[in-house]
């Protein structure tokens, strides 16, 4: 990602003029006397990949959690399509996260006693997907992410990069419209990180899934269309050249 320019985080619009899928305005959140977010605006469109970067403690993970409805801001709004998250109760936000949003975390958080395919399948079954369809989606995503031969292995039998790709498969098998990824390559070496990001971004673009990820790694951020830099709870945006 080169030539970062400072612009409003809500100033971008795709060429087709479509409305943002996720729209945040004036986000403020404090933990005690510490202001984690200080008036952040952000738009994310379908099929767009945004990297949220910044130093440790800058507020990037807090921003991700507010956008996903895990945390409720003190001020400001987050709208997903036509739904305002602040107008939902906790149960409503949980349903949105279960049925519409996907999540990938730094350490994958796979269930250690389940095979790769079961780690992908179980959340689908819990969401009400029929078993045959859940298995079809699981096998399809594991195959697309180069993991067909690993489907029966336990997480302990997988490399770090393989385990993280299983986590990506689990998230995308649920067919989310927005995928949130918190430091998805933070625990991986550079080669495994590149493999995971290639798999994640290609799969997300194929499915027209919006992706918002946090990272401290410029090589990971380079996979995004836009880089949102968070410092002291505020943001600037950089565009990718080429």
TrEMBL record:
GO molecular function terms attached to this record: ATP binding; ATP hydrolysis activity; transmembrane transporter activity
Domain of life assignment: Bacteria
Keywords of the record: ATP-binding, Nucleotide-binding
UniProt domain ABC transporter: residue ranges: 22-240
Gene3D superfamilies from the UniProt entry: P-loop containing nucleotide triphosphate hydrolases
Listed Pfam families: ABC_tran
A GO term from the CC aspect: plasma membrane
PANTHER family: ABC TRANSPORTER RELATED, IMPORT ATP-BINDING PROTEIN
UniProt-recorded name of the protein: ABC transporter related
Species: Salinispora tropica (strain ATCC BAA-916 / DSM 44818 / JCM 13857 / NBRC 105044 / CNB-440)
